[in-house]
Recover the amino acids of this structure.
C-alpha cells in the first residue's frame, strides 16, 4: 500500500510541476504569479513524498529543495504584494504574450534499421583496420593479419 501511495504522490507532484512549467513557457502564467509558485511548491513536496516512500534519497532531497524554493517564492509574493485592488474600468487591459513552442522537423523517410549510410571506422592502432599511412600505402591489410594464440 505504501508503494501505491508513494507512486501516486510522485506522479501527482511530477505532473504538477510539469503543468506549471508548460503554462509558464506558454505565457499563461508568469514565474512570479502565486498560482505558478503554489503548483511548483506543492508539486515538489508531493514528488518528495513519493521519493521518500521508495527510499530514493537524492530525488527526495532535490524535490524538497524544489518545494521549499517554491514555498519561499510564494511567501515573498504575499509579503511584497498588497491586497488585490479592483481594476479600474478606464485602465487598459493587459495582454498576455504567448510564446510558440518550437516544431521539430519530421524525417523525410522512415528509418530502416537494416541499412545505414555510415562509413566504416578506421583506427590506426587496431590491427586489421586497413589504415593508410601518409604515403598512401596500407600499413596493415586485413588479409595480412594472422590469429595469435594467447597463453593463459
Amino acid at each position: 500500500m505504501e508503494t501505491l501511495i508513494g507512486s501516486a504522490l510522485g506522479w501527482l507532484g511530477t505532473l504538477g510541476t510539469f503543468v506549471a512549467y508548460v503554462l509558464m513557457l506558454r505565457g499563461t502564467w508568469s514565474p512570479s504569479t502565486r498560482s505558478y509558485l503554489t503548483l511548483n511548491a506543492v508539486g515538489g513536496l508531493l514528488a518528495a513524498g513519493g521519493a521518500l516512500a521508495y527510499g530514493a534519497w537524492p530525488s527526495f532531497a532535490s524535490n524538497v529543495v524544489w518545494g521549499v524554493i517554491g514555498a519561499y517564492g510564494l511567501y515573498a509574493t504575499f509579503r511584497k504584494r498588497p491586497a488585490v485592488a479592483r481594476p479600474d474600468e478606464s485602465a487598459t487591459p493587459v495582454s498576455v504574450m504567448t510564446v510558440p513552442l518550437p516544431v521539430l522537423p519530421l524525417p523525410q523517410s522512415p528509418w530502416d534499421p537494416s541499412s545505414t549510410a555510415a562509413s566504416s571506422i578506421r583506427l590506426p592502432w587496431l590491427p586489421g583496420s586497413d589504415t593508410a599511412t601518409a604515403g598512401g600505402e596500407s600499413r596493415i591489410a586485413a588479409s595480412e593479419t594472422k590469429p595469435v594464440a594467447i597463453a593463459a
